[in-house]
């Protein structure tokens, strides 16, 4: 990183260095951007990251497969349940097992709730950064309900750790489904209110249209995925393209944009929330009682009652805790469509208790790497809009 | 499918291949990487999903640089592994894929593998004078001596170093 102290050369002319972050209200996490300005026009932007680097991949090599799940909560902490789902799906692919139907349905249900929560934060905070505060309040009321639902299901609002390898930590409790049904109605109304505030608001148009434009080819070349890629006009969504957890049986559409600018990203996210509501409704309609964990003593922990009363269960419990699962030797890459895009887990197993190598492919790292390209030549105020619409989550970016 | 095509177009390039749980993997020498990338790009593998590396300290060629590609039209995935020794470098893909820039910086940062032709090969996640490369297997989990003040024992493993 170049020193940000002004050298003689930098003092020439009108150039000015502005340091955004590492702690700044619009950076949503600790990241730093050194902007070089000519008047109000950005001539150079140097992002610096790593402030939230915790060495998740290194820690993963020293933890068992189950123990890694709480670390996935802390990747994209706005939609942690989706990281749980993405990681356990990857380990299940390595094991070559299929989880029970009810577990799949509940995973879809909570994933879509998390997607809505993530998009609500992204759109709401993007609007706050640009100066529209009211929409944020409407949206965050709904996010609270989603977190209440997560608390009911997992006992935690943010760091859910809801899934386990082979299924779920527990079934959803009584009262979850009625509250979700109420949420579906209220969220629909809140989205309408938000759209009334933003979609036809001339100031919102001025601030977002034509900002952060990217072509479809460039977006693919930069490695974009998720809403930012779809806003550029590429209809790539892993839920449709490479279905997992039975997504192929649900009826939903993939919204795409045309220019890839901040306004298109807003529209894509808004429509995706509607589609997620559609999926949740379908899940609630077809939710059937059944087990939420695979029936395999080599993978699933036995119930406490069995551990205390049966010899065999006690042994299985001891083996699983002390020695971990028996893992095949091999490597898998498994990707799920998280709120920000393709969240991939690349796991190399040497047959041991811990993964030999675990790699998290964060969706926002490639997106953020194009930041300079996106803001160069624009105004400093637009950099804030672009950063918000990229939805950079530092926990996921730095790992 | 694509593997047969690579075999026909660049005979002898693939030194090893395997298929596990539906993931197709090929291993190629680093000299052939750029030719393969040009072919893949022509054949529709335009989405470079990820670049990472795996450290196998007991092997002579210690690192595997691992690339993941996705074909957006056919949704076919391909994993390419390039073995390199410590100190050897790999050609950079930044000329074809802009997204390679930061991924290669990250691999350089955490494994110390250099990429030839990279425009700006600096550390990405750790700071510039960080001692060592964190994801190498011989890098201790607690960071080693440089992170411990005098008289302090390592917080993990009863003071023993070296991970598990």
Shape designation of chain A: globular
Which percent range fits the helix content of chain B?
10-25%
Anisotropy-based shape of chain B: globular
- What is the CATH C-level name of the largest domain in chain B? Alpha Beta
- Structural class category of chain B: alpha/beta
Helix and strand arrangement:
The complex is a heterodimer of chains A (399) and B (164).
Chain A: H1 8-11, E1 15-20, E2 32-38, E3 41-48, H2 56-61, H3 69-73, H4 80-95, H5 101-130, H6 134-154, E4 163-164, E5 167-168, H7 176-198, H8 202-208, H9 216-221, H10 227-231, H11 238-241, H12 262-286, H13 304-309, H14 311-323, E6 329-338, E7 341-350, E8 357-361, H15 364-369, H16 371-375, H17 380-390, H18 394-398
Antiparallel strand pairs in A: 1-2, 2-3, 4-5, 6-7, 7-8
Helix pairs in contact in A: 4-5, 5-6, 5-12, 5-17, 6-7, 7-12
Chain B: H1 2-9, E1 16-20, E2 23-27, H2 33-42, E3 47-55, E4 63-70, E5 77-84, E6 89-91, H3 100-111, E7 114-116
Parallel strand pairs in B: 2-5, 6-7
Antiparallel strand pairs in B: 1-2, 3-4, 4-5
Membrane topology (chain A): Peripheral membrane protein
Subcellular location (chain A): Cell membrane
GO molecular function, one term (chain A): quinone binding
How would you characterize this protein structure?
The complex is a heterodimer of chains A (399) and B (164). Chain A has helices at residues 8-11, 56-61, 69-73, 80-95, 101-130, 134-154, 176-198, 202-208, 216-221, 227-231, 238-241, 262-286, 304-309, 311-323, 364-369, 371-375, 380-390, 394-398, and strands at residues 15-20, 32-38, 41-48, 163-164, 167-168, 329-338, 341-350, 357-361. Chain A has 399 residues and is of the alpha+beta class. In chain A, the strands form 3 sheets. Chain A has a 3-stranded antiparallel β-sheet. Chain A has a 3-stranded antiparallel β-sheet with strand order 6-7-8. A two-stranded antiparallel sheet of chain A has the order 4-5. In chain A, helix 4 (80-95) runs antiparallel to helix 5 (101-130) and helix 5 runs antiparallel to helix 12 (262-286). Chain A is globular and about 80 Å long. The relative contact order of chain A is 0.18. The model of chain A has no long low-confidence stretch (mean pLDDT 87). Chain B has 2 domains: 2-133, Beta Polymerase, domain 2; 134-164, no CATH class. Chain B is 18% helix and 25% strand. Chain A binds chain B through residues 1, 49-50, 53, 55, 57-59, 61-62, 93-94, 96, 218, 220-223, 234, 236, 241-242, 330-333, 335, 342, 344, 346, 348, 354, 356-357, 359, 361, 365-366, 368-370, 373, 398-399, and chain B through 20-21, 23, 25, 46-50, 52, 54-55, 66, 68, 72, 75, 77, 79, 97-99, 101-103, 106, 110, 122-128, 134-135, 139, 141, 163-164.
């Amino acid at each position: 990183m170049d020193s940000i102290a002004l050298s003689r050369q930098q003092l020439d002319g009108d150039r000015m260095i502005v340091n955004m972050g590492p702690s700044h209200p619009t950076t949503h996490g600790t990241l730093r951007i050194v902007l070089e300005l000519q008047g109000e026009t950005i001539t150079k932007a140097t992002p610096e990251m790593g402030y939230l680097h915790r060495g998740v991949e290194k820690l993963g090599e020293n933890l068992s497969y189950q123990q890694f799940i709480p670390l996935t909560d802390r990747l994209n902490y706005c939609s942690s349940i989706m990281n749980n789902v993405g990681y356990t799906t990857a380990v299940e692919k390595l094991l070559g097992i299929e989880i029970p139907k009810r577990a799949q349905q509940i995973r879809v249900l909570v994933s879509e709730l998390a997607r809505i929560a993530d998009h609500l934060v992204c759109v709401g905070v993007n609007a706050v950064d640009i100066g529209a505060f009211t929409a944020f309040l409407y949206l965050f009321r709904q996010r609270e309900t989603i977190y209440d639902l997560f608390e009911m299901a997992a006992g935690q609002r943010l760091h859910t750790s809801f899934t386990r390898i082979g299924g779920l930590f527990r079934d959803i409790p009584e009262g979850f489904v009625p509250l979700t049904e109420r949420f579906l109605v209220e969220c629909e109304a809140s989205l309408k209110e938000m759209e009334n505030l933003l979609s036809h608001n001339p100031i919102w148009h001025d601030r977002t249209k034509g900002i952060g434009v990217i072509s479809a080819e460039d977006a693919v070349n930069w490695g974009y995925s998720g809403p930012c890629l779809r806003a550029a006009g590429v209809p790539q969504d892993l839920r449709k393209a490479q279905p997992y957890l039975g997504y192929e049986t649900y009826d939903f559409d993939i919204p795409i944009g045309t220019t890839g600018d901040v306004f298109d990203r807003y529209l894509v996210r808004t429509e995706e929330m509607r589609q997620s509501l559609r999926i949740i409704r379908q899940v609630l309609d077809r939710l059937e009682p059944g087990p939420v964990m695979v029936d395999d003593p080599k993978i699933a922990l036995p119930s406490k009652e069995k551990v205390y009363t049966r010899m065999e269960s006690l042994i299985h419990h001891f083996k699983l805790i002390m020695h971990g699962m028996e893992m095949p030797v091999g490597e898998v890459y498994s990707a799920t469509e998280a709120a920000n895009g393709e969240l991939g887990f690349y796991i190399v197993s040497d047959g041991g208790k811990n993964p030999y190598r675990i790699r998290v492919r964060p969706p926002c790292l490639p997106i953020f790497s194009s930041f300079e390209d996106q803001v160069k030549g624009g105004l400093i105020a637009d950099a804030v809009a672009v950063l918000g619409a990229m939805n950079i989550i530092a926990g996921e970016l730095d790992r | 499918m694509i593997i047969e095509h690579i075999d026909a177009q660049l005979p002898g390039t693939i030194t090893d291949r395997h298929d596990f749980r539906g993931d197709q993997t090929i291993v190629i020498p680093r000299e052939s990487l750029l030719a393969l990338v040009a072919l893949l790009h022509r054949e529709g593998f335009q989405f470079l999903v990820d670049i990472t590396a795996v450290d196998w300290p007991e092997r002579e060629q210690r690192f595997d640089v691992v690339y993941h590609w996705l074909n957006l039209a056919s949704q076919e995935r391909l994993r390419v592994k390039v073995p390199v020794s410590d100190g050897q470098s790999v050609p950079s893909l930044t000329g074809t894929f802009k997204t390679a820039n930061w991924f290669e910086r990250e691999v350089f940062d955490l494994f110390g593998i250099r990429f030839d032709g990279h425009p700006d090969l600096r550390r990405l996640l750790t700071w510039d004078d960080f001692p060592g490369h964190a994801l190498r297997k011989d890098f201790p989990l607690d960071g080693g001596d440089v992170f411990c003040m005098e008289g302090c024992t390592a917080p993990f493993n009863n003071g023993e170093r070296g991970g598990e």
